[in-house]
Amino acid sequence: MPGRTRSLSEAGPSGAAGVFAYGAAAGLAADLLLGDPRRGHPVAAFGRAAAAVERRLHRDHRGWGALHTAVCAGSAVALGAAAARSVRRSRAASTALTAASVWAVVGGTTLGREARAIGGALAAGDLETARERLPHLCGRDPQSLDGPAMARAVVESVAENTSDAVVGALVWGAVAGVPGLLGFRAVNTLDAMVGHKSPRHRRYGWASARLDDLAGWPGARLTAALATVAGGDPRGAVRAWRADAGKHPSPNAGPVEAAFAGALGVRLGGTLSYGGRVEHRPVLNGEGRPVEVADIDRAVRLSRRVTWLTLAACAGGRLITDTLKRRTK
Q1: Which entry of 34, 42, 51, 218 is 20 to 30 Å from 183 by CA?
Q2: Confidence (pLDDT) at 279
Q3: What is the pLDDT of residue 245?
């Protein structure tokens, strides 16, 4: 019809794909320049809302936990869908919304800053400062760790969070736009809140943990593949990924940490402690050397390379998919 305003999906092969590509690039640039806000972070606000829902729904039962997951994650997806729908006629507004959403859900810059801060404290021999900052990255008991063990914990956290805090979100953003971005971050946050095997959450958090495993599956494999490409030892990364990923208790952390270990030439895994509970995890890349403090910076730099390669892969994949869809119509 003459004068009809077209939606982004009708605006040519570069429409929705272009919105995602430019919006995601702008969001990553904002994260690089600004990092996470100290106050009023959207993810923190979601966490408070999810905690309020848990206080009302909590029962020692998988069904109630599944309801909690559905309410919280479903609300995030619905919010994203409503926001995207409200700006769908404007490419500029849609791009801005995508950029804001990417900035809100990724955490690569803060991840790198925290890791390097701990690395700096370890390099200076200040173990107490390193122990104070370690909980910002992972849930391990810092008082039970010496310097080398903390360095290993940081490298493992950088690897895992590259997938959880960056790559996975971009993958789902490419697949489902703003609802995918917000939905993935909601699921990942719920897993961190209730998905662990504490007495309170062993049953209640089951649904959140399983949904996070499912949502994180593609991002973890892409992270491992790109770490293999971007790391210093592709053969070592592939070897460690194939040999050791399945030994890890997490189906998604295993490939990521194994690939990072092989790419960096270090040995990860082993004994660790969570909440007073000691775990003896399999060693990843047993042929590697022990982690050193300098490896923290190497892991951060590898994480950043993986981030930008993910943007290219997701934007390219979205463009190809949209082009093929148009050609089949």
Answers
A1: 34
A2: 73
A3: 96
Q: Is 277 helix (H, G, I), strand (E, B) or coil?
A: strand
> What amino acid is encoded at 124 in this protein?
A
Question: How many whole angstroms separate alpha carbon 253 and alpha carbon 246?
Answer: 10
Buried b (16+ CB within 10 A) or exposed e, 146-174: ebebbbbbbbbbbbbbbbbbbbbbbbbbb
The residue ranges of DSSP E strands in the chain, in sequence order, are 268-274, 277-284
The radius of gyration of the chain's CA atoms, rounded to the nearest angstrom, is 20
Separation of CA 214 from chain center: 13
pLDDT band at 291 (very low <50, low <70, confident <90, very high): very high
- Are β-strands 277-284 and 268-274 bridged in parallel, bridged antiparallel, or unpaired? antiparallel
How far is residue 117's CA from residue 247's CA, in Å, rounded to a whole number? 30
The 3-state DSSP class for residue 140 equals strand
User: pLDDT band at 32, cuts 50/70/90?
Assistant: very high
Angle, alpha carbons 324-78-216 (nearest 5°): 65
CA distance between the termini of the chain: 19
| Closest CA relative to residue 28, chosen from 181, 184, 134, 154 | 181
45: left (phi over 0), alpha (psi -120 to 50) or beta: alpha
pLDDT reading at 1 higher than 60: no
